Each structure stands twice: as structure tokens, then as C-alpha cells.
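# step 3/5: fold
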Amino acid sequence: MLNSLHPHPNNALITQRGRAYFVKGKRITAPSVSEAVKVYYHPFNKKEVLANIRSNDKRRLKADGTSRTDDEMVQRWAENAEYGESLHKVVEDYYNGIPIPEDKAFELRHFVAWDKAKPADWVPYWTEQAIWCPHRHDDEITAGRIDMLFTDGQGKFFHVDWKFADADYAYGRNKSRVYCTCNAWRFGDVECVEHEFGCKAIGPTEQTKHLLMYKWAGYAGNNSLYSEMLRRNYGFNIVESRLVFLHPDLAEYVERFVDFEKHASLVNSIIGA
């Protein structure tokens, strides 16, 4: 398997059981990467989001043209999460030498295109690897699982995060709904991620302005935290980090580069400066 070809002493110290992480046999009580990051952004409010999705929003529509109920929307969210996890597993298998099954070829066509187009000197290093990092300001440990790590074989590493989320998030916008107006989140140097990627659209109300941005901000925050953990506790020179959106509804894959510096305060608040 790929990960066993590139062992690291810290990998032998971490295990995972379900969603719980253990380091040196002791369960980690601090929030995982995704749990730690999400508290710094506008929380996901199911009722608020459902109310904000107009009845003619494409995600409300069934194949027969009728609109989904709120309960059906919630069920669809759960199914989408399971769907994303299943495709992550196929990608993991691919980098471990297992061909993509024929019944997944269409759904993963964007991944295949990205893999062919990635820099020629990128060599797969780890896939779906649990990592951990002790805090500098307390006795806690933060852990999580990275999607993919590449190396150029010359000391540079590249962190990639696969995203099978709703296609609208790949562009950071949805024209049928509202946009983020950015209140600089909780840290002065962390701008709204839409601003990071160049979107200056403004939403109409204080109450709804961050509905679209929760996933964007969380994705970039998670990505930056993982990259810093790999630097600090593993000694890897992470020079680039990307979010790669692969939802089958996209016309092609969408790739975003994460600016580490814009998330420095968030990262330091979690694992220490």
C-alpha cells in the first residue's frame, strides 16, 4: 500500500477507531481538525438554510420536476455525504494500485482528468493518512485525516483535498441565492474565502450573508490547518495546497489554491503560535 512505502515515526503512534483518534494508545479529547475549525465560522443552521433555499432552487427539484420537502432535503444531504465518502474510497484505492471500477468511471471522470493534468513531477506519497500534532500552548493534541500528499522527490510536498460537495461550492457562488459580504470572520487577517478567490459579490442581509460561505471557509481552514500540522509535527516542506472539486455535475474539475497566510491566525489559535 502507498502509505507503507513512505513510513514516518508519527504514523505508528496514531490509530483511528470510527471517528475517534488515539495517540500512543490514549484517546484524543480535543476536537478533530474539522470540528476545531468549524467553530470559527458561521455555524450551519439547518432550518435557516432550508428556509433560504427557494422552492425553485435546483437542489429542491426531483427528476419528475416536483419539489423536495424539507425532510427529503435533509435526507439528500445525508445521502450526498455517504456518496462523497464512497468516492473518496475509490480515489484512495486508485493510488493504492486498484483500478477505478467501470460503474464509477463516469462519476470520477473529473478525477481522472485532474490526475492526468497534475504536475509531471508530482509523485503520490500518502493517501487517506491520519495525522496528529501537539499544541504549543497547552497539552492537547489535534488529529485528522488528510486526503492526499504528493512530493517532487526533492524535498517539496503538495497537499491536496478532494471535494465532492455540491457543484455550486466549487465556484464559491450560487446565483439563485445570496452571497457573503465578509466581516473578516473572527480574525483580522482571515478574509471571507470568496474574497480570497476573487469574488466581491454582496448579499442583502446580515442574517443570510454567510449561508453560502460556511463550507468555503471550512474547506480552506481545514486545508491550512492540515498543512501546518504536516510542517510542524512531520517536518514536511508543504509548499502548496489545493482544493480539487470533483462533483459529477460539474462540467470539469475546479481547482483552488489555498493561501496559508490568510489562515495563520486561525491555525495558531488551534495549535498554538
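# step 4/5: annotate
The two ends are 35 Å apart (CA to CA).
# step 5/5: archive (pending)
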